[in-house]
Amino acid sequence: MSAHEHTDPRPPVRWATHALLIVFTVGTLFPVLWVIKMALRPSQDFATGLNPLPTEFSLQNFADIVGDPLFGRQLLNSTVVSGVTTLVGVFLACTAAYAFSRFRFPGRRAGLAAFLVTQMFPGTMMMIPLYQLMDWLGLLDRMLGLVLVYSTTAIPFCVFMLKGYFDTIPKDLEESALMDGASQFTIFWRIILPLSRPAIAVTALFSFMTAWNEYILAATFMSDERAYTLPVRLQAFVGDYTTEWGHFAAGALIVSAPVMALFFALQKHLVGGLTSGGVKG
Amino acid sequence: MARATRAGYVAPLLACLFAALLGDMAWQQYAQHNADRAGAWSAQRLASALAVSPQPAAMTTTGGALLRVVVDDPAPRPYAFLPRLSYVAHPMAAGQALDPGSDGDKAAADAWSKGRDGAFVARAGGQWRAAAPAGARQVAVADVPAPDWARVAATGRWRLLGALALGLTAWLLLLWRGPLRPWRAAAGAGVAVLLAEAALALSMYDLTDHQAHQVRWVLGLVSGHGPAPEPLLPELGVLVLAAPLLPLVLAGAVGWFTCSARSPHRAAYAYVAPAMAGMAVLILAPFAFGLLLAFTRHDHGTFTFVGLRNFVQILRSEGVGFWEPLSFYFTLAVTVAWTALNVILHAAIGLALALVLKEPTLRLKGVYRVLLIVPWAVPNYITALIWKGMFNKQYGLINHLLGGLGVEPVGWFSGFWTAFAANVTTNTWLGFPFMMVVALGALQSIPKDLYEAADVDGASTWDKFREITLPLLKPAMVPALILGSIWTFNMFNIIYLVSGGQPNNSTDILITEAYRWAFEQDRYGYAAAYSVLIFLILLGYSALTNKLSKGAEATYG
Amino acid sequence: MSVRRLLPWLVLGWLLGCSAGDGADDRTRLVLWHSYRGAELAALEAALGRYEAAHPEVKVVPSGIPYDAFPNKVSVATPRGNGPDLFIFAHDRVGDWAAAGVIEPIGFWATEPLLDRFFRSTLSPLVYRGELYGLPLAFKTLALYRDTALAPDAPADTAALIAQAKALRAEDPSVWGLGYELDSLYFHAPWLHGFGGAVYADEQDTLALDSPAAIRSVEFVRGLVAVERIVPEELTSALVTTLFKQRKLAYVVSGPWFRAELAEHGGWAVSPLPTVSESGLKAKPFLGVEGILLSAHSKQKRAAFDLMVFLSQDDEALSRLLQGGQLVANKAAYQDPAVAGDAFVEAFRDQVEDTVSLSNRPHMRGVWTPMKSALSRGIVHGESPADALRDAAAVIRRAAE
Question: Is residue C32 part of a domain?
Fold first, then answer.
């Protein structure tokens, strides 16, 4: 893990790094092989035993899920809810984190503490009042309700992550911009945000995951099958005494693919940050 | 600043007055409503009009009475739970025919059949048509003493005033010291209104359960449709509950308009407000509800105020020894160990991987990164169960591998430590990708020229890690670690799915205990008390980390 | 306007859109919640289609709710008027829902001829405090599956089963005699009842789980594991299926759902559970009934009840049995020639006579987890069954205070 300089490390170091990474990655992926195995088997029982490699190759489970008449709609629901959650959550978190990082105002510490405090009360006790609230707001069976709940769930982490990152951005950049007559918002929008791409990428992924994999609240708030998100559909394969593991596994793989695609797309923003002297981004 | 200060005095006072008016309105509504009902109750007797005979008989009443019908059981029947009635009584317009099987008919019949083991309260007014069930041999009638609602309402007004006076005193006392600021006054007023409401609720001690229950229901302190509450104005209870927030909102609004437009504070509030508003509505409101629940006992949709009983039971660990599984203290220790181990492992693995994978020259780094977040991406319901399968004693992969090394099969879920290790292993696997992503992001905040300068000085890799990477990583990583430990503290599904608390509930953590109380034992109040304790512990923890670590700047700096 | 301009509005419309918009429709709308999947769902949808064809004034809106979210969703949504008119669920929550005023007693409309359709044992689980709260659609219980290559004949009693299993183990040590989830009270119940025990001693929630009979039943299974060594210790339902398919398990205690898991696997048969040799009593499993329940907050109870009656008709039951593979609660369905020869169905039909209905009282929910601990202590970890059961009973009693 050496070589912060921009030269290739010597081949032995390189090969050792790769060997270690490959071993670790294979170890990490090992349990997931069973998911793939179950997804590719035509039968619906849970795969056990010592061999995680697929022995049968049937796409029936995938076909069943994709062929469901509501699949397209539920995929769209999930995409819209997660996408909007990400946009709303990240935007609100950015503005809040910027204020916490750059302004000194009465109630600042209390506000920051409030964000942390909201994470401490266990969620299980919040479900019934949240349902009541959604009922009053008329947001049951509506995507907007899920977006609101998911955004507020994601915001505290995003605020802390972004504030931590904003704090590392040198203030002299903004001061020189202020000298040039830029407004506070211009500084936020044109300087701070572009410089914080790595942290925004992380919070975006986090917000997206919060919405994308959640099913307990979605299953409680949504009663119409056309309003379901994909995780709710997935959980419906779990029955009282039996679970359709083949379908569940295939669905789990379908659900995780977009997350990985999103991460792959976002990770180019995880490189290239700051230099202490000035802006090069 | 003078205008703002004046607003700080006036706004909370106005809000207090408003809350008082609201409370009084609620009280009047409530008394009026019950007076209406009392009028119905005071009518003399239904029985004289209700001729009980085998044939349907029409009659008109204006009042109500308690009616008890005793039915001779005819020959034993195959389905004892079917009602014994062939005719039913219910209010109807004159001349209207019975409509057997309709919803209204059924409702009346249900009310009647309840009379088999209790009483049937006839509603007042209108014409009644009734017939006795076959085999009826006795109809007992009792007068119902109507409660003196006028007295209740009158004393209620005094109670309300007293409570408000108490609240205002508290408010003044709170403001006695220190400079007056609008937000300070508003917060004081909020506390005062809350105090007043609590005092009012507690002052119901001399009312009967039924009456006190209704008052508390109006105040939003109990919920449900138990024996007592007649839905009055569902929104009223909420308004009363929201009253303490009103001064805050008012003071905020007044402060907003009186603050100079050029004040930097105004801009700061504008940036924070949207996120704060969302949190206030969607998290603080349910949280307040959860807090209230902790002081209640839940019984089939009805919540009864029980004071601190839940907390006392939990903290005295009634029924189990202090240091046995299922006791609060044992579970707390397990929870702390679980949290500490998980967070350390997540952070160590995540950071190590991030350090390797941030190298710009490393080939295929994108592929490694994407593959390594797979545990985070795949729904953990299925992967947790796969891990459970791998820990199976006779057929699990892990014992198979250990067997290759000559180790006897381990019964992973038979002992505390092994079951705990299985839980931690699974959760480590599930959780390190998140920390890896966070660390990857955080590492980008470290300027590269610092490393270049260190290289010039001839620093070793370890020196660079210790002197540059770790300190500069702190601002971005410490919040993630604190939040990560809070989440892990409340991480319930992994333990539920992998060890299931085995052996003998010893690997349960506080949140799984709370979950079991809520959803397996149907004791929401008890579970809420657990949650409040969890909340307090975490609050203490974050205060402690704030004090102890220099990460305080990172969190609040 | 360009697409980019339009997109935010489209998304906003989607977020706000009420998904249940069906346009103008003056038919009576009955919402039915269920958690059926696959063949069962197809059978239900076909039946609802037939009902709508016969009743053009009614529109039935079925909605599949994930099973594990189902009970809490019903409890939360129904009192707030957002629940269904009817829902199909296992009977064990009937007590909870009845006490909380979520479900409506239907005794007023039910008549004796209507109730005569069903096995008597499938009705009583739907009765709580003297009121009937639903009509039974199907039942679930346990029976004895056997691998016909390893065990050609069904054992009459446990002694025969043990002897046969030991002989098989002696021949091939990788073969096990009997398999099921040892630490689950649901699977232990046949032995509990077979030794004369019960969960509750009476109607007053008097717990009997630490009775001598219960202790003997745990000692019996401990013997099967530790002395006779015919039962593997740590079996999950997934492992049971795998081992049975690999022909490594002679007998399995499981329910009707096990057939679907076996899929194309052949060479097996089902029979009622054996008699317990020590006591001479039948091993009686729990009986679970899937009932159709009427919401107490429905606006059209009478119309909803009609649909309940329709779905529980004999011919509808038969089609659910044939198309959906459900073990229906109607007696007549089993007389049909299309069913009469089916040994699988017959076995469960015979078993239903020897069952104990799973209690529907609210406190029953608190029994499972403490008993899981007790059974794993007493059976798997070899602790004293009496101690383990006494501790569990203490925990249950304390929680029910």
Answer: yes
Give yes or no for a contact between A254 and A204, defined as CB atoms under 8 angstroms apart. Answer: no
**Residue C179 structural domain:** 143-284+367-399
Q: Which domains, ranges and CATH numbers included, belong to chain A?
A: 11-58 (no CATH), 65-270 (1.10.3720.10)
Residue C10 domain flag: no
* pLDDT by 10s per residue, chain B, length 557: 444 455 555 555 666 666 555 555 555 555 555 544 443 333 333 333 333 333 333 333 332 233 333 333 444 556 666 654 333 333 333 333 334 445 555 555 555 444 333 223 333 233 333 444 444 433 433 333 344 555 555 656 666 666 666 666 666 665 555 555 656 666 666 666 666 666 665 555 445 445 555 555 555 455 443 333 343 334 444 555 565 566 666 666 666 666 555 566 777 777 887 888 778 777 777 887 778 778 777 777 666 667 778 888 888 887 777 777 888 899 999 999 999 999 999 999 999 998 888 877 777 888 888 888 899 988 888 888 889 888 888 888 888 888 888 888 888 888 889 999 999 999 999 999 999 988 888 888 788 788 888 888 888 888 888 888 888 888 778 888 888 998 899 888 899 888 888 788 888 999 998 888 888 887 888 888 999 999 999 888 888 877 665 544 544 44
Buried b (16+ CB within 10 A) or exposed e, C285-296: bbbbbbbbbbbb
Residue C5 belongs to a domain: no
* CATH number reported for the structural domain that contains residue C160 in this entry: 3.40.190.10
Interface probe for C, chosen from A34, A240, A247 (most Cβ of C below 10 Å), is A240
Nearest to B479 among A161, A252, A259 (CB): A161
> Got the DSSP string for B293-361?
HTTEEEETTEEEE-TTHHHHHHHTTTTS-TTSTTSHHHHHHHHHHHHHHHHHHHHHHHHHHHHHHT-TT
Burial class (CB in 10 A: 0-12, 13-18, 19+), A108: middle
Beta pairing partners, B101: none
Predicted TM-score (pTM) of this structure: 0.81
Q: Pick the residue of A65, A84, A223, A235 with the most C CBs within 10 A to test the interface with C by mutation.
A: A223
Strand order in the sheet with B127-130: B57-60, B127-130, B90-92
Where do the domains of chain B lie? 2-37+157-295, 57-75+82-142, 312-556
Q: Which chains touch A (3 or more CB pairs under 8 A)?
A: B, C
Cα B395 from chain centroid (whole Å)? 41
Statement to judge: residues C299 and C158 lie in one domain = no
Start-to-end C-alpha separation, chain C: 67
Structural domain count, chain C: 2
Question: Which residues of chain C are within 8 Å of residue A216 when distances are taken between CB atoms?
Answer: 69
Q: Which of C382, C241, A220, C398 is nearest to B326 (CA)?
A: C398
At the top level of CATH, which class does the domain B312-556 belong to? mainly alpha
